[in-house]
């Protein structure tokens, strides 16, 4: 019988053998077929032998710089997920990522060397393809019907007194055969197949029930739920969500609906109408991943948001990059001037948290505070 090729196949291009081996070993331990090469020539030969699902790329190579390699991948029409890493300034890495995206490549992260093994493991685990890639809309529809999509909750910490004041609800698909299917696979599938409305409704219902269960801990605790730009095109969205709140006995102002900056600004006039209706129903609104889109301040001022979340790429580097630090400070000051509360996501250590306090950020979330937990672990987390 023909041996089945692993769903996740990774090539590392790095002229430092120790780093190449580290990345390949980390990937191999979580189920990737991984190969490390140290020259652009060997990289091209490896691409000819296999079509990798993931590429980890050092931008500074003796025989080719990162932009040349990215151009080569773009010419091939590569669909691999890219992690760019190098010892260069974080801004150079960020712009290189934008160059790659402008050329149709899928950049999932940029990492400044030295890269921690735990960080690589988390990245590769989060962005792995399921062992059987043929997950289609029928499977997703069945998952919704069988309630295989469930929620994990990541706490939001108020920095003024270090108290948990709410949670972000994160959708997870626990597939019977393939295990955990990451949301960056099933959410786009839901959007393409017309299932996003049903997914959003199921997720929102679980979130509302969780809010009700939080009353015994603290009736002020709230939950944030992500919605899609496609959801905003549904003229009945606000009515449906409000009806769910009534059925569950939950006040809408305890639920914050999060929409990415890119989604909110892709069609501002249509987005405004949907967002205003949601605010009129009592929901709070948050603009997520702020700083990586192309919205103008004038457009942001016209939107009825109550919260702004600074993208994790700036938060992660705010203690090591002068530019990221300046962006965090400027965005916080701007948001406060617009009477928006500010949340920083992606807090990975105590130094970052201290920096955010000094910058005046209101709330924070990230692995250093807590990884996402299942609903039954919320009470223990709050008590601690």
Describe the overall structure.
The protein is globular and about 60 Å long. By secondary structure, the protein is α/β, with parallel strands linked by helices. The N and C termini lie far apart (53 Å). Helix 1 crosses helix 5 and helix 8 runs parallel beside helix 9. The longest helix has 18 residues. It has two domains: 118 residues, Rossmann fold; 247 residues, TIM Barrel. Strand 13, helix 15 and strand 14 form a beta-alpha-beta unit. The chain has an eight-stranded mixed beta barrel.
Question: What's the CATH superfamily of the largest domain, by name?
Answer: EAL domain
Question: What is the name of the CATH class of the largest domain?
Answer: Alpha Beta
- The number of helical segments is 16
- The number of distinct β-strands equals 15
Mean pLDDT: 87
**Spatial ordering of strands, largest sheet:** 6-7-9-10-11-12-13-14
Distance between the termini: 53 Å
User: What is the helical fraction, as a range of percent?
Assistant: 40-55%
CATH domain topology of the largest domain:
TIM Barrel
| Residue fraction in strands | 15-25%
